[in-house]
Amino acid sequence: MAEFCHAKDGTKYTKEVSWTPIGNSDNIENMYQGTFDGNGKTIRNLYINDISEYIGIPCEAGFFGYAEKGSIKNITFDNAKVKTTADDYCTGILVGVAGSCIENIKILANCSVEGKTTLAE
């Protein structure tokens, strides 16, 4: 379930949605390269369950998949869960792969990331 707030009147809506991460590494045009300012807002109940099998192709999962040469700031995540099952995934709640400036991000204690673990040498 995700909670949405109508910007003009503050009405909150709760709805189950499928989230597609912003940006990916398919090619440079698909990487997120802008400025994202969450203005201190909170994203609640983000749930990503990516069960894709991209064998040998690196993929990213999170609110942002791949962020490069940009800025992400001023946002909080509450009750966020990200789960992946494929090999070669880079996974995080905020971003899978970050080459951007990241500042003032809060990940609350009731958040989790689940997937395979591989350490590079």
Tell me about this structure.
This protein is mainly β and 121 residues long. It has one domain (2-114). 0% of the residues lie in helices and 52% in strands. It contains no helices and ten strands. The strands form four sheets. Strands 3-6-9 form a three-stranded parallel sheet, with no helix packed on it. The protein is globular, with a radius of gyration of 15 Å.
Class derived from helix and strand content = mainly beta
Total separate domains: 1
Number of helices: 0
| Spatial order of the strands forming the largest sheet | 3-6-9
The largest sheet, given as strand count, sense and whether it forms a barrel, is:
3 strands, parallel
Given as residue ranges, the uncertain stretches (5+ residues, pLDDT < 50) are none
Helical residue percent band = under 10%
Outline type = globular
Order of helices and strands: EEEEEEEEEE
Radius of gyration: 15 Å
**Count the strands?**
10
The end-to-end distance, rounded to whole angstroms, is 38 Å
Q: In percent, how much strand structure appears in the residues?
A: over 45%
What does the average pLDDT come to? 77
